Amino acid sequence: MTTDRALVLFSGGQDSTVALAWALARFDAVETVGFDYGQRHRVELDCRLTIRARLPALRGLRGDRLGPGHLVDLASLGAISETALTRDSEIAFAGAGLPTTFVPGRNLIFLSFAAAIAYRRHCRHIVLGVCETDYSGYPDCRDDTIKAMQVSLSLGLDRRLVLHTPLMWRDKAQTFALARALGGQGLLDLVIEDSHSCYRGDRTRRHGWGFGCGRCPACDLRVKGYAAFLADPNDTGPDL
Ligand code: ZN
Prior knowledge:
Blueprint: E1 5-9, H1 14-26, E2 29-36, H2 43-54, E3 66-73, H3 75-80, H4 106-120, E4 125-127, H5 143-157, E5 162-164, H6 172-194, E6 206-207, E7 210-211, H7 217-231
Parallel strand pairs: 1-2, 1-4, 2-3, 4-5
Antiparallel strand pairs: 6-7
Helix pairs in contact: 1-6, 4-5, 6-7
Bound molecules: zinc ion.
The site of zinc ion has 10 residues, from α7.
């Protein structure tokens, strides 16, 4: 019997934390990869370590399946990206309707690096927490983009890779509900306390939904999602 191995793109954010828990429930061995591209909210990289350390102790989660965590230095991506995620500029919506936090092609680059690691580590599955239901409009988060990347990477590596996006059709409220369904109150508490969303990297202000400035687009999604989750905590959304 072959071991089904997965590599999870894990930033330390809410979505990738739930994607990691999802992967632990499905695959025999799970590794993670994070990317340091000079993001303003670098604090998420520290959250990543905290979450990895605390996950195995949670009841109901297969933390024993959690393997090594990889960190890739992509400083050059930050250097070529004039965006509000990598520069100290205003976070707002730009002309094309995209937020100024958009780093062009970020997920395409992340996936290419992840595929190289997956190849070397014999991981057939790559899991990422992208979502086009309740997101900021980034085109590289869309389902068609990810499906096209699966084809490109499988062809380019001449090895079958399967890209999984368990949150693609779930909104933020359903992602909170999925966390609770996967790992009970323990995982929900971990997501709230230790996962990071805020683009400004604010971990000084604690709200019911976690830490953050409460005003940037990432906080805005999280605030509204948590409120909707409290109103309907059992709706985990479609499992497509
Ligand atoms: Zn914020």
